[in-house]
Amino acid sequence: MHLAERTQNAAMAGTAVQQIEAALETMRAGGHAPFAAYYEARLPEARAVLDRLKLP
User: Fold this and answer.
1) pTM surpassing 0.85?
2) Residue 56's closest CA among 10, 15, 6?
3) Which domain holds residue 45?
4) pLDDT one-digit tens code per residue, 3-33
5) Residue 2: alpha-carbon gap to chain centroid
6) Pick from 52, 55, 40: which is nearest to 6 by CA?
7) Domains held by the chain: number
């Protein structure tokens, strides 16, 4: 996510969002609440980066 923002790479930001979503679901399914909370907090940040990079 941070690298995508620094390099202005929207595709990389999209991949980051997908990976964070997958990690969040995996942690939830495994009952790892602290880790799920961490990824849940990162997801809006990653989506915001992606949204900024998608703007023309």
Assistant:
1) yes
2) 10
3) 2-54
4) 999 999 999 999 999 999 999 999 999 999 9
5) 10
6) 52
7) 1
